[in-house]
Design goal:
With about 240 residues, the chain is mainly α. The protein has nine helices and no strands. Among the domains are: about 35 residues; about 60 residues.
């Protein structure tokens, strides 16, 4: 008797648990139904407004857009979905690269600004402005014929400048100028005795000999230039 009573009690407890479970499921289903109803009630005005707005926008372009065009565009987008995906991947890669290079470019820009400021402080830009003024003066001072002659003789000019920039030539000119600057301020004795005493100096005689040699070369070249036009006139006669 007691065994039968215990089994009946267990069955009643199991039935009670099932009833509670079903009741909980029913309450959950009812709550979800109410939430869906509330969502539909909230979304319906928004969807209705969006629908009317879409109709208004489509009415403005209905003369230019055909349904077949839209379908063809949609099919084309679907066919090129992978290409679009690759393009988006490339855009993301470019964006990542820009994010990576951003600090580097900022640093390079700051370095450039600092370098330009240093050049301005040292006077590079002032020198460039002065060089432009010199170049403008040269351009306005030379005629077209002068420029043509300059082009014809540029090799000779460059060779002459090259010879003048030799270290021994520059040193000779520098020493001569320094000595001349020192001697200009000193008193000069131009009496015959003083001149004769200077003439007995080997250095003075060497200088005179070199001067006479240079004068001989200059005179020879001048004679050659004078004889050339005379020969041309004689041949023409």
């Amino acid at each position: 008797m007691e065994t039968a009573s215990a089994e009946l009690t267990a069955k009643i407890d199991a039935l009670t648990a099932q009833v509670e479970y079903l009741s909980a499921q029913a309450r959950l289903a009812e709550r979800q139904r109410q939430e869906r109803a509330e969502l539909v009630r909230d979304v319906t005005p928004i969807a209705d407004q969006a629908f009317h707005l879409a109709i208004e926008q489509l009415e403005e372009v209905q003369e230019y857009v055909d349904l077949a065009d839209l379908l063809r565009l949609l099919k084309r987008l679907l066919r090129n979905a992978r290409n679009l995906e690759r393009m988006l991947d490339q855009l993301e890669a470019v964006s990542d690269l820009a994010d990576t290079l951003g600090p580097l470019t900022d640093q390079a820009f700051e370095k450039s600004v600092e370098a330009l400021a240093e050049m301005e402080r040292k006077g590079y830009f002032a020198f460039a402005r002065g060089g432009a003024h010199i170049l403008d003066a040269l351009v306005t001072s030379f005629s077209e014929e002068d420029v043509r002659r300059l082009g014809d003789n540029i090799v000779l000019i460059a060779s002459t400048i090259k010879d003048l920039t030799q270290p021994e030539i520059l040193l000779f000119v520098r020493n001569s100028l320094q000595v001349a600057e020192q001697e200009i301020g000193k008193p000069i004795d131009i009496s015959y005795g003083a001149l004769l005493r200077q003439a007995r100096d080997p250095a003075v005689r060497r200088g005179l000999a070199l001067t006479l040699r240079v004068l001989h070369v200059v005179g020879t070249q001048a004679e050659g230039r004078e004889s050339a036009p005379n020969a041309g006139r004689t041949a023409a006669a």
